[in-house]
Design brief:
The complex is a heterodimer. Chain A is of the alpha/beta class. Chain A is 43% helix and 18% strand. In chain B, strands 2-1-3-4-6-5-7-8 form an eight-stranded mixed sheet, with helices on both faces. In chain B, a hairpin with a 2-residue loop joins strand 7 and strand 8. The chains are: A alpha/beta, B alpha/beta.
């Protein structure tokens, strides 16, 4: 085990290397490119025995991933944002063929407007595809999640691909101290890839992805996928426990931060949860009984874990770093559905949209959110709709941009 | 072309790796091409399929193929093939796959995918020098969706997106893209045009290709009875007419160097080919569209004027045979050299 400083991207590359992946189809996109540059260098130098192939688009990249996984090798790839959505149909194709592989998404807000800053509309757009999803707060978690992802996805009862998400710039390019485990240690946890299903390299011929015209048959296959994803809810804690024992780090589906006696809970994901935790600490030292729940596993959706940490609270605020235009926060809706049937569900459940295009929180915003939770003045119609975080000062900044753009020559 | 292996029909294998009884249309030129192609290619094949009529070949729980098969999506079969080929090589290197169980990777696609949505991934696979076969069965349309115009649709053809009406009486007015030339520009190991009506020519080309590693690409002219609006039993005859009128040159390119493998002794007028198909009926009824027919005839003659039958890649005109007269029925091109059929 080596302790070193690594960016999120470097940690992702190390995760792939330690997982001893066989094949990396690749295509560049900001802010993930450093991952494939690193892997290309290692594959070239012979430090990593994998084959890396530069493809002609992300759609082709995922097609190559599909072909290789279906032939029976361990596949890794990485993309972001526009690349993920360019390849979108292949996400359904890969998951539908029940091919385990790990795809690292370095989150970046989607065009238009085109930007480079992070938010989660890209990764969350994939939530229906059948890919399992881990959302990481730290570089350590990125490395560990790749190993956990292969272990989970390749499990014979699951056989689903996995997305590991990390925020662009805030995590991808931020150096943090991390423990890089030894390969020999990792091998005990993650043995070599042995497909638990028919692959194209088998001696017997096999037809994969045959047309299914019968509706009941199609339904059966989709139900199977769903059950497989649900099976991950039971299998994941076992894998987490084994990982914790071996490497000393626990990565539960929901991370609890200062929740023990919290009346109010803020729910967040990814790297901005670090900022949330800092705010919670500050509010705690000011006497507020507030905590933070970080949703780490997004698919399968950990209903039981969320019910356990959110029931009985006086109020919960969900900060979505995404927006479903015309509706609101994506995770807010999912959490609300998970809590609906509980007698002791929090009477106040508020939705806040923050972090779009990487928007940082402004001073006082967490105080403001907590105040809204405490006062509980929203009507039910208001509670169903998102609060869009934005300040007067930002309004003025935006106004300055417009003034320049509209200036007479 | 002097054939080394396929000198008579007896040399074609009796083994069928594509059995009948599947859901494709009677007289499907694509399926016939695939059958002949597979006979020449032999066993140990993985087909990587792009969305097309052929996607209906394997309909769960059945497949008519004794070979393996994987469906990718419409635009990315060559990329899928890259993954399959690379994985096979990785498994061989690791000692998990024995060399005798290696496979030939074959992309199977229609012209819609090859010309349009899949052109990028095809060019990229050629660029990377992927060791694979590529069989494009060309019915000159998006056949599976009901015969819409693709970049392979010939000038003057009726399609469901270029229907015939008083304001639009000519059919599609785009020239079909020369896919052979597009591929050839990257100098892949082997490119060929084939037609199932010439099974020895087709089989010999597969045999020749098999000696190369790298990209081995085939375009098979595939008459489509429902789309071309003709009787299924004319499928082979219409393919023969396409070649005999000069519309469909039979040729190959080895590392970019072209030679024609068959040139008709006497070219039939294009009209003999056009008249057999309902998708060109508007050129004859209710009135003869002499202009469009002449245009098609002239395009064919321009092509053959550029090729000397014996040389490769030269573009010097062949001793100026007579150009089309006003009545295309009377025109003929005489090749100065007699070659084997």
């Amino acid at each position: 085990m080596t302790r070193t400083m690594l960016t999120g991207n470097a940690a992702a590359a190390w995760g792939a290397r330690l997982a001893e992946v066989d094949y990396v189809p690749a295509f560049p996109i900001t802010p993930q490119t450093e991952i494939i540059d690193t892997l290309a260098r290692w594959c070239q130098d012979g430090e990593m025995p994998a084959k890396l192939v530069m493809m002609d688009s992300e759609h082709s990249m995922l097609a190559a991933a599909l072909g290789a996984a279906a032939t029976g090798v361990r596949v890794f790839t990485a993309t972001s944002s526009q690349g993920l959505v360019y390849a979108f149909e292949m996400l359904y194709a890969i998951a539908g063929l029940r091919l385990p592989l790990v795809l690292v998404n370095v989150s970046r807000a989607l065009a238009n407007p085109i930007t480079l800053e992070p938010d989660h509309n890209d990764v969350l757009s994939a939530r229906d595809t059948g890919f399992l999803q881990f959302h990481c707060e730290t570089s350590q978690e990125v490395l560990d999640s790749i190993l956990l992802g292969y272990r989970l996805g390749e499990h014979a009862k699951i056989l689903l691909p996995v997305i590991v998400n990390l925020d662009g710039f805030y995590l991808s390019f931020t150096r943090e101290p991390i423990d890089v485990p030894d390969l020999t240690e990792v091998r005990h946890f993650l043995p070599g890839f042995a497909p638990a299903y028919s692959v194209l390299s088998d001696k017997e011929s096999v037809a994969l992805g045959a047309t299914v015209l019968d509706p009941s048959l199609y339904t059966y296959f989709k139900h199977q996928m769903h059950h497989a994803a649900e099976a991950a809810l039971e299998i994941y804690p076992q894998i987490v426990a084994e990982f914790a024992e071996r490497f000393g780090r626990r990565h539960d589906a929901v991370e609890e931060f200062m929740l023990d006696d919290a009346d109010y809970v803020i729910v967040m994901t990814n790297s901005f949860a670090s900022m949330g935790k800092a705010e919670v600490k500050r509010l705690r030292s000011a006497g507020k009984k507030v905590g933070l729940a970080r949703l780490r596993m997004v698919r399968p959706f950990p209903v039981d874990d969320l019910q356990a940490v959110l029931r009985g609270r006086k109020g919960v605020a969900v900060i979505d770093q995404n927006i479903s235009v015309g509706k609101g926060g994506i995770l807010f809706s999912e959490i609300a559905a998970a809590l609906y049937s509980l007698i002791d569900r929090p009477p106040v459940l508020l939705s806040f949209i923050g972090g779009l295009g990487g928007r940082r929180f402004r001073p006082g915003e967490f105080d403001g959110m907590l105040e809204k939770l405490e006062k509980s003045e929203e009507t039910s119609a208001e509670m169903a709709r998102p609060h869009l975080l934005f300040t007067t000062a930002e309004g003025r900044e935006v106004g300055r941009f417009f003034a320049i753009a509209e200036r007479e020559p | 072309m002097k054939r080394e292996k396929y000198k008579s029909l007896r040399t074609i294998s009796h083994q069928d790796s594509v059995v009948g009884g599947g859901p494709l249309c009677a007289g499907c030129g694509g399926q016939l091409s695939l059958r002949l192609f597979h006979k020449a290619l032999g066993e140990n094949v993985i087909f990587v399929n792009a969305a097309s009529c052929s996607t209906l070949l394997a309909t769960y729980p059945f497949t008519p193929l004794s070979s393996s098969w994987i469906y990718t999506a419409m635009g990315c079969a060559p990329a899928g093939a890259q993954g399959v080929r690379d994985a096979l090589d990785i498994l061989k290197k690791k000692g998990i796959l024995e060399p005798e169980h290696d496979r030939k990777v074959v992309v199977l696609t229609g012209d819609g995918a090859a010309q349009d949505i899949g052109l990028q991934s095809t060019m990229a696979a050629i660029y990377r020098g992927l060791d694979f076969y590529y069989l494009c069965y060309d019915n000159e349309s998006y056949g599976n969706t009901g015969f819409q115009t693709s970049a392979s649709t010939p000038y003057g053809a009726r399609t469901s997106t270029a229907p015939i009406s008083p304001s639009s009486p000519h059919g599609s007015l785009h020239e079909r893209r020369d896919l052979f030339e597009i591929w050839r520009v990257q100098k892949p190991s082997y490119v060929a045009t084939v037609a199932a009506a010439y099974p020895l020519d087709l089989s010999e080309k597969v045999y020749r290709a098999s000696k190369f590693s790298g990209p081995k690409l085939f375009i098979a002219l595939s008459p489509c009875p429902p789309g071309w609006d003709m009787d299924p039993e004319w499928s082979v005859e219409v393919a023969r007419l396409a070649v005999e009128t000069g519309i469909w040159p039979l040729k190959e390119a080895v590392h970019g160097a072209v030679s024609h493998t068959y040139i008709p002794r006497q070219f039939k007028p294009v009209e003999e080919y056009l008249k057999r198909q309902g998708r060109f009926r508007h050129l004859f009824e209710p009135e003869r569209d002499a202009e469009t027919i002449a245009h098609i005839q002239a395009t064919v003659e321009d092509y053959w004027h550029q090729w000397s039958p014996n040389e490769t890649t030269t573009r010097e005109p062949v001793g100026a045979p007579p150009r089309a007269t006003e009545d295309p029925c009377k025109a003929s091109l005489v090749s100065p050299t007699i070659l084997d059929r």
